[in-house]
Amino acid sequence: MMHIESNIHEECGVFGVIAPEPCDVANLSYYGLHALQHRGQESCGIVVNDDGIFVSHKDMGLVSEVFSAETLSRLPKGTMAVAHARYGTTGKTNRNNCQPIEVNHQKGRMALAHNGNLSNAAELRSELELTGAIFHTTSDTETIAYIITKERLQAPSIEDALSRAMSTLDGAYSLVLMSPQKLICARDPYGFRPLCYGKTADGMYVVASESCAIKAVGAEVVRDVEPGEILVFSKSGVISRREHCEKREKKLCIFEYIYFARPDSVIDGVSVHASRVKAGRILAKTHPVEADVVIGAPDSGLDAALGFSQESGIPYGIGLIKNKYIGRTFISPGQGARLDGVKIKLAAVEESVKGKRVVLVDDSIVRGNTMGRVVKLLRDAGAKEVHVRISSPPFLHPCYYGTDIDSEEHLIACKYSISEICDIIGAESLGYFPVEELSHLSGNGGFCSACFNGNYPTKIPTDTRKDRFEQRLSDRKKEV
Asked: Which residue out of 12, 399, 448, 451 is catalytically annotated?
């Protein structure tokens, strides 16, 4: 999934598998991560449980870059594995922050993969450091691992330790963790981030951030993990623990439907593709325009563009083509180069837009710089008019639950009116998805839209910087 605005990034993706007998769980996890690659392109990792012995490989890069056939062959067969594809919303991009995180402690071993962001991570980490905890990473996932480990020293089981830890954690977390004998997953009581599980015909259970990853490895989706639910997979079967369920109002991130998730996924019973098509239909009703063709920004704007076309009756066309071979390793042109990075990533289809009034549908505008260059790209290809339609409301507030939305000072909608933004991006008109219509995208289920309206479900963190833990280390060095 490519998003032509470079300021919004995907979530992390988690994956786990448990098999009745030792098998190539690393290879299965590899394909699961491939299906979740759109959720994180910075780093990835797999930890295999070979009869209680954990063997792992983690590194920076895409799944195909980190795991070669030779690398996978060095991972043993086992009965369990956990895997992770990372985009870091907290902590720098370096190998230390690669997941899954592995912990050795008095009661055994644990490997943990996490999607989301804790809103109280800084406070919890400070408390742990005051008790002598030493951190090796700058992600809040390690904070979760420490708290679970601390609770495990007193709790009768790893699932009891996780349950006790969940009483302390606040914010967004979908977790998959592995002990020597069990695979466990949990979703925070708000249900900010998606999580589901499935089963293969030969009895393996698979846990993943999205249903597309479960289907990719040949499993059938059983259901979504409910907000607050803990699922324990072992040789004895599956046990559901619900002591944290229904303690909070459900707050699934609405941007999962708008952009993050893959279109072929189903989240909490709602098709992502159908949700985006519906968004396009609503846009056509609330912001109609006379035009000759509707096009979508690849890839996240395509479904909404289809819905806009269906509702408005304006023909749908392919107006922008993306370079499929531009990945995270793409080197941006230097300041002295006369190359436009957008033109390298995108190309306009002149046949579709020349001499026409074009409706361009995308999922969001962040700063506006990239959108302005895309509008110019269409004009250079001969578009007579460009009308921009956005399938989300304007971003007005930062996110503290895992979406890397910038501070308000960098959000274009915080600074300028609709007409002013139109002038900045060079469009004839601009229409955003109405914030009051968001409930239609989630099937009327509970959702979080704080980045649009400022209604945060949890207490706002005191320190919201992405690099807050690095900054703390820097300050301590100065004190020394």
From this structure: 12
